[in-house]
Amino acid sequence: MSSAATVLESARSARWEGVGGPFRVIETPLPQVLADGEVLVEVELATVCGSDLHTVTGDRPGPAPGVLGHEQVGRVVAVGPGAPRCLDSTPVTPGLRVVWSVAASCLRCARCSAGMPQKCLHLRKYGHEAWDEKSPLRGGFATHCLLLPGTAIATVDESLPGEVAAPVSCATATVAAVVGAAGPVGPETRALVNGAGMLGLTAVAMLSAAGARVVAVDPHPERRAQALRFGASEAQPVGAPIGECDVALELSGALEAVQSCLDSLSVGGVAVLAGSVSPGPAVRLDPESLVRGLHRIVGVHNYHPRDLQVAVDFITEHHRNRPFAELVAGRHRLDELDAAFAAARRGEAPRQAIVPRVRTGRPLPRPTA
């Protein structure tokens, strides 16, 4: 379908009305003409990320009303003039199965020019935008999403289950950034992973695949058992003696976990912090220990586009030998999003799946060229 083709189908979005309010399914027309560099994608499956849950519960600020969701996999429906290429140089064309970055960058500002497009001065984040009647398709909890220029896009193999592919857009790519920030990892590396949720388990799998000896720490026995299935050498409760580690990753945001990462570093060790995305108490930092230990402390927020391709490559290679599919439960319709979030609050699985195209009544027709 060309960018100038008339689109006869409408889109449906599950619009979040604000803290304490339900989701409302809104029907809006699809764009009839795409602008330069825009890509229209039909969402195959989305997952409820922890940040979505924190937004809905009021623990994280978010504009309302708006369409949440930033972990999804979909299929390209249409492309505008000057169609972009995927990260592996594959042309973006209708029919291509893809995942995309959590944000779109301008690629021109000082931060983009300095190699930090994930912190672009004009960043637009999918699932984090206020509702715009003129351009409503900005989140994953919808039948379609309109990708802006400056969005990193990666092609996804048809064999990859949707439940495994969708979290790549946020969880897997974020972990790829975290592990990359830790520097070279190999058989001599002893790594600490604090938090064995979706991100922590993915980090355990990535580190163990690189040959590292991984110690996972989590307060929940079932999560510790799961960490062993994802390749951890040890799984310890919070407060257990850990010993010195070359790499310490913090993915939960808990104050005690951050402190544990800082205190566990061996000489030359690096702590990578990614879980502390909300204001909280300060931690204790001993500058002498930092200096004499040649320690590094690195923060990771969002991720660089290259991390999305690393994530796709990793999950494609390893999803069969680690139980990634078990981390996603449910197959909720858009009009069942309240139930999906309730299940997420109960902790029934690290992720709940949303299948936007499943609906009651007559299914919408697919657009034609």
UniProtKB/TrEMBL annotation:
Cofactors: Zn(2+)
Domain Alcohol dehydrogenase-like C-terminal: 199-316
MF terms (GO), sorted A to Z: alcohol dehydrogenase (NAD+) activity; zinc ion binding
Pfam families, sorted: ADH_N, ADH_zinc_N
Entry annotated with the keyword Oxidoreductase: yes
Gene3D superfamilies according to UniProt: Medium-chain alcohol dehydrogenases, catalytic domain, NAD(P)-binding Rossmann-like Domain
EC number(s) on file: 1.1.1.1
Any one Gene Ontology cellular component term annotated for this protein: cytoplasm
Keywords: Metal-binding, NAD, Oxidoreductase, Zinc
Family statement: Belongs to the zinc-containing alcohol dehydrogenase family.
Official protein name in the record: alcohol dehydrogenase
Organism of origin: Saccharopolyspora dendranthemae
